[in-house]
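Notes from the pairing session

We agreed to fold both candidates in a single pass and log them together. This is the raw record for the first candidate, unedited. Please don't reformat it; downstream parsing expects exactly this layout.

Candidate A
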Amino acid sequence: MSGNVPKDIREQIQDRIWSKADDLQWRKLPDIERAMWYENWAKDDDVGGILAHFMDPRRVRVYIKDSLLKPYQRARLEDGLERVLAALDLESGKTMATTVFYKPHGRLLLDGRVICWGNSRDWKIVLFAVFERACHDAGREPYAAVLMETGQSTRESTRELIKEAGRRLGIAKVIWLE
């Protein structure tokens, strides 16, 4: 979809949106507020107005969501790798991964431990990814699910439910990063 938007224009718009998303703490925004921002950007002359020159104006909002903000979310999760490793008491320089996973993010470590991380709003996906990726081969251990708090699991009862799900899936650690 981005093939029609010149690279320099796409990068300028992406930088603008990513900067605003950082300011808004995008990861923690409720869906209704995200929808409002997609709409605002689509109607903004300096964002949607420019993009509408390269695509059907009805596609601008979807383009912003799928082509500009999904990569933002993936990039920000990958930026969190050091925090994830630190929270698990793993040293980044000494923790080598044999496999890198995306959707959700994760690593298969040299010793067979599987770790995955993502937003707390996606806890079911993150926990099941640890379980599923560990089941692929003998010698893999479903080691850790790290959840970046998005406001969806701040209640202790919710966290206990998530920890219990992790325990039942055989995941050694389920932790949150605020």
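Candidate B (folded immediately after A)
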Amino acid sequence: MDIHEEFTQWTIRRGLKIHDIKLHRFPGRGIGIAAKKRIKADSVLLHVPHSALRTQYTVSRPVVEATKEKRISVHGLLATDHALENSLTVFQDDYKPWHSILPSYSEFQESISICWPVALQKLLPPMAKIILSKQRKKIQTDWSIASNAFPCLTFEKFLYSWLLINTRTFYFVPPSSCGVHRPFPKRDDCMALNPFSDCFNHNPCPSASVKVTESAFTITSTRDIDLGEEVTISYGNHSNDFLLAEYGFVVDENPWDEVLLDDYILPLLDTAQKTELESVGFLGNYLLDRNSVCHRTEVVIRILCLPLQRWRRFVHGLDDGDNDQPQVDRTLLNILTELKRDVQQTLRDISSFSDNFSIQKKILDTRWRQIDKLSGKALNKCQAQD
């Protein structure tokens, strides 16, 4: 029996009901889910009872006892539990079939930017860098608690487990049961490991949807699916910078893609302008998507090129801003020109990096070419209106 079939049988013993789908290795995408036959829309493909999930309430007692006074995050708790489950004798469930199909640490080193050398991390897009910084803080906090509780635990093993939790958990709020009321957890703590479901790859235009009921997760086809076709779900409406930093991949056609422009706009603002923007909630987070810049960007560009009173009228909805659009477009044109120039330099920097990191280079090159395409489209639009 191969590892895919062994894992499938293991999940069935845990109560999963699997219909007309199987694990399959897709070139360049790793393990995913394929249709075993032609599937009609609205067909239930997978049923996962809550009893098969791994949550904060299934963590082994030694891990809970050792960390309960330390305020470790649920993410850190699950990571510690996973990292130690082959070391502690209290584990009664054999998770080897599941472990055998999980990505290796070396695969994470290639795809997940927190595992990259600092010199490569510096070549990430701005939004990905922000996410990376937040990840570092979370990992360091969790690692400090876990390592003090379990000195035998190595950082590499903990990081590997932390990344498994980060890339494979589903949003989940355990329902109250048997009259036991549980306080509603923080959003970041609403997570569950969901074996087999975690093998579905992401697509912004998926062929299946996920639903959570009081007793189970169900995954259902949203359209007809051909024999052998990959079955996908959506991880959420995420930009490619988010997908890159959190999951280690980008998608070619992403309707939710966007680029952060803060590095090009904030340095243009003086202190008074920043104060004015902050007072109305428009300081920072300026984005360019596939169609245009966001409203926040429209607001900040106007404070750069208009008299203050006219800018205030626009902010408060007293002026539609149409008469000022040519000035706005010219200012935006300068910003996008600088962005495009930096993109070209970054692509050259990526190309000159050591070929020992060819996979990382390919991921970065792909992402920056997507940014180049987005900025080029917006630049052409501005030039046409000038």
